[in-house]
Fold this protein.
Amino acid sequence: MILFVHGWGYDASFWDPLRAVLGDAPSTTLDLGYFGAAETTLPRDVTLLVGHSLGFLWLARQSALKHLPLVGINAFPRFLEADDYHPAVAARVLERMRQRVLSDTRNVLEDFWMRAGTAGADGAPKAAALAEGLDHLAAWDERENLASRASPTRLIAGREDAIVPPAMTEMAFPNSEITWLPGGHALPRTHAADIARLIRS
């Protein structure tokens, strides 16, 4: 069974187009709780992990899943730049979002969705959960966890990704094979058929 975990600013419905293309392939989703109740209980019988953006980081942090193959879409091992990690996202970008997200939640999301290339969930956003997600993006660094995985990690990236530009992806995964698609930061929604083909392979 495939386990899908979405990224920041979305919910489990983010995966609906891809799961529809995959048809009867067994799959399930977790929900990080940005638009409703969080559901992060790890299911049994998982054979493949697929994470988008922050969801990839979330999966990389789960020691109980370290033995499973992992697919990262629009992914990164850390989000913010550091002395040994650049080009990446400047801390001030997240700081501005963090300052606004509690008081201007919908506009922060609309701006993000426009840059990502697809709209988000229809439900009411949970500002506190979104703020916590930005904190996770600022703090999490899973380079060591990913390097120690016993199972393979496959990477799929977008040539027009405005959130995680190609130069950042190539820097972040220098020794990994990356499959490039002609899209932005929401490949599972905008290129569902291509992603499904790559997952099947």
The radius of gyration is 16 Å.
